[in-house]
Amino acid sequence: MAVYKNRIDLHMHTLSSFDGNYPAEKMFESAVANELSTIAVTDHFDVDFYERHNLGVRQQTSYEDVVSAKGAFSDKIRILRGIEMGQPTYDVELTERSLARYEYDFVIGSIHNLRNMPDFGDLDYKSMTEERIYELLGEYFNEMLLLARWNGFDTLAHLTYPMRYIVQAGRNEIELSRFDPVTDEIFRTLIANGKALEINTSGLRQPIGKTMPTEDYVRRYRELGGELLTLGSDAHFTEHVGAGIDEGYAIAERCGFEYVTYFENRKPVKVKIEK
Ligand SMILES: [Zn+2]
Ligand SMILES: [Zn+2]
User: Fold this and answer.
1) Can you give the pLDDT at residue 66?
2) Residues, Cβ < 5 Å to ion ligand 1
3) Ligand 2 mean position, distance from CA 72 (Å)
């Protein structure tokens, strides 16, 4: 049973993502069964894998599937046309041209890999020196700051993403406090630009056992004046649609947020957090 009213999940993937597993309608059915009021489909568009992932075609399929299926659900749930732009700063021209192809409600900005590097999930942290891990993390946070400054998205997704894999590899000695100046700068940039921070709840069902970013970061964002917050399960399976959203609302409340946000036609809409 849902704890909160107006549960919103703005991050999920369908078969149109290279790592998706279910068609859009199956994800929508799960969203209705899981008592969500609003969702966004946000299939991957990792710009630096445009050819390898055949993204010109996948983007079209994703968008058209959502638009054609959402009508049948319109009396049950609000379905938003979204996209997850991965590494957009690595090819801004291609990113902006691709975004202009369709009328999106909501654009996620994320970083899954450094330039010309594999996904953070495909690096071997077990044998890596501590110094190297911190070096990679430094580069990651710098890329997140560049992404925030680019500003062509609505929410900044899964900040601290590499930690999902670093913790999974047992490197529990790695901690992020040395990066506080840059994460503060990321938050200040989002706030100045009127953009949202995402609480990505996928970590709650993974070995890391925490949201990305963690509650401490959400609190800091709030302290600096952050008001816009989105929540996303990052579901790649029907059974994960809405997973962790109640926990995400609880974190938001504890950090002093009274509202969560969804985006329609790229404009923020605030929704009161209530039980
Ligand atoms: Zn992502
Ligand atoms: Zn995702």
Assistant:
1) 97
2) 110
3) 25
Core vs surface per residue 32-42: b (16+ CB within 10 A) or e: eebbbbbbbbb
Question: What pTM was computed for the model?
Answer: 0.97
User: Radius of gyration of the chain from Cα atoms?
Assistant: 17
C-alpha–C-alpha distance, residues 7 and 232, integer Å: 10
Fold of 7-272: TIM Barrel (3.20.20)
Q: Specify the pLDDT at position 1.
A: 75
Angle between helices 180-193 and 130-150 (to 10 degrees): 10
Report the Cα–Cα distance between both ends of the chain, in Å, rounded.
12
Q: CB burial class (10 A; 0-12, 13-18, 19+) of residue 52? A: exposed
The answer, yes or no, to whether residue 42 has pLDDT greater than 80, is yes
Contacts of residue 180, Cβ cutoff 8 Å, sequence gap at least 6: none
Q: Which ligand is nearest to the CA of 212?
A: 1
Task: At 189, list the tokens.
Answer: 């940039």
Instruction: Kindly give the distance from the C-alpha atom of residue 253 to the centroid of ligand 2, in angstroms, as a whole number.
Output: 24
Strand partners, 110: 86
Spatial separation of the C-alpha atoms in residues 230 and 196, rounded to whole Å: 7
Cα 157 to middle of ligand 1, angstroms: 7
Cβ–Cβ < 8 Å for 115, 48: yes
3-state SS class at 257: coil
Task: Please report which ligand is nearest the Cα atom of 17.
Answer: 2
